């Protein structure tokens, strides 16, 4: 398994991610996108990312949500579900580029993954929620 760091730009904001790529891809393997919770970063998944890639034969991406880790921390934006869902959707389209993905999210990342899955049902092969946060703020 090879682990590398990458960046993509979303509307002028620099978004960081890591990807663990297996030495050999399994036929039909579906990439996994890991989304951290509030106060964490992609490094939250560091010990598991390589093992999952090796076991599944698929690339495993871990994103730093805007405002966290090595991603930009812009001012004047509303941090929350809408911003981060948009960021994850862009990562899937522009970086992952697979017809389907699995999503796994921890805490607020679970909320983001639920939102992305609801908006992109045809492109999400499955959803794993790890102690997901509920909707917060004004409803």
TrEMBL record:
Q: Which Pfam families does UniProt cross-reference here?
A: Abhydrolase_1 (PF00561)
Domain AB hydrolase-1 span(s) in chain numbering? 31-132
Give the domain of life. Answer: Eukaryota
The record, for PANTHER family, names: ALPHA/BETA-HYDROLASES SUPERFAMILY PROTEIN, ALPHA_BETA-HYDROLASES SUPERFAMILY PROTEIN
Identify this protein by name. AB hydrolase-1 domain-containing protein
Natural source organism: Hemiselmis tepida
């Amino acid at each position: 398994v090879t682990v590398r760091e990458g960046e993509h730009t979303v509307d002028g904001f620099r978004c960081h991610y890591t990807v663990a790529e297996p030495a050999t891809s399994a036929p039909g393997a579906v990439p996994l996108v890991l989304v951290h919770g509030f106060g964490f970063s992609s490094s939250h998944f560091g010990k598991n990312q390589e093992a999952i890639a090796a076991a599944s034969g698929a690339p495993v991406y871990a994103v730093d949500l805007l405002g966290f880790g090595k991603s930009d921390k812009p001012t004047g934006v509303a941090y929350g579900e809408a911003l981060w869902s948009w960021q994850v959707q862009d990562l899937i389209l522009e970086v992952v580029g697979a017809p389907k993905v699995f999503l796994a999210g921890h805490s607020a990342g679970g909320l983001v993954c639920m939102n992305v899955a609801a908006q992109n049902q045809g492109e999400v092969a499955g959803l794993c929620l790890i102690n997901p946060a509920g909707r917060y703020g004004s409803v």
